[in-house]
Design goal:
By secondary structure, the protein is an alpha+beta fold. The chain has helices at about 30-35, 60-65, 75-80, 115-120, 120-135, 140-155, 185-190, 200-215, 225-230, 235-245, and strands at about 5-10, 15-20, 45-50, 55-60, 85-90, 95-100, 160-165, 165-175, 180-185, 220-225. It has three domains: about 5-40, no CATH class; about 45-120, no CATH class; about 125-245, Endonuclease, Chain A (3-Layer(aba) Sandwich). The chain has a four-stranded mixed β-sheet, sandwiched between helices. The protein has a two-stranded antiparallel ribbon with strand order 1-2.
Length: about 250
């Protein structure tokens, strides 16, 4: 039996009287009217008030189960959430920003953003010092071989010394103002093994020359020892170091 028949109803949504083919239980004149209606018969929540402004509004049942405080809009929720934040002034740009108290014990609050943090020259120096300390604690195999040769000569030296707060050198002899670098053949482009260096090697070679020029201008003597010589001709490297360790 067909459940649709010509019926006359007063729409529960818009209040318009409509006569057309409808189901016996249909209370709305159209699907659009049904979707626009408030459908009070389906509401299982309750009326509540905004925690910030006190404005009354309807709270669905799922929100009642998920939270203890309720807000009429997102901006009021954000304002309430940040009510205990403290204000700080950025060290770099001077901008005033807010910070949650729960993060105070884990961070040194100096910057409003990562960009300002990375632009701080004091932080760059700190990172270089931390890197030098880490490298001194965990030298690579080439550095261990070089340090072994220096230890055999009995001359006091420092490992992973930071020069001018700019870059870290492998070994430094304070009494002679001497810098000693142990260079890997591939990474630093040993011309005897790599006559046609790659773009990456050429970039590293330019950086090495720039560092040497800077240290020389600052009054340091610089010698570089190749990985191939340390591994294959340690006696030659020892003689080279002995000659460099003589006070000029």
């Amino acid at each position: 039996m067909n459940q649709y028949a010509i019926r006359t109803i007063t729409c529960a949504g818009c209040g318009k009287v409509t006569s057309k083919r409808l189901r016996p239980t249909q209370r709305y004149c159209s699907l659009a009217c049904y979707r626009r209606s408030s459908r009070p018969q389906r509401k299982n929540g309750q009326e509540g008030a905004c925690q910030l402004c006190g404005k009354p509004f309807y709270l669905p049942h799922n929100r009642l189960e998920q939270a203890n405080a309720y807000f009429c809009c997102v901006s009021h929720a954000n304002t309430w959430q940040g009510r205990n934040k403290t204000s700080h002034t950025c060290k770099i740009c001077g901008k005033v920003f807010m910070w949650s108290p729960s993060r105070h014990e884990h961070y040194n609050i100096l910057y409003c953003s990562l960009a300002c943090r990375d632009a701080d020259p004091d932080r760059k120096v700190q990172l270089r010092r931390m890197n030098a300390k880490q490298l001194a604690m965990h030298p690579n195999n080439l550095e261990l071989l070089g340090y072994g040769l220096l230890d055999g000569l009995g001359i006091p030296y420092e490992r992973q010394r930071l020069i001018g707060d700019k870059f870290c050198v492998d070994a430094f002899v304070p009494s002679l103002n001497l810098v000693i670098q142990f260079d890997g053949d591939y990474w630093h482009g040993n011309s005897q093994r790599f006559p046609e260096p790659s773009a990456r090697q050429r970039s590293r070679m330019r950086l090495d020359n720039s560092q040497d020029a800077y240290m020389t201008a600052c009054g340091y003597r610089v010698i570089r020892v190749w990985e191939h010589d340390i591994k294959k001709c340690p006696s030659h490297v020892t003689a080279l170091l002995q000659a460099a360790l003589v006070q000029p």
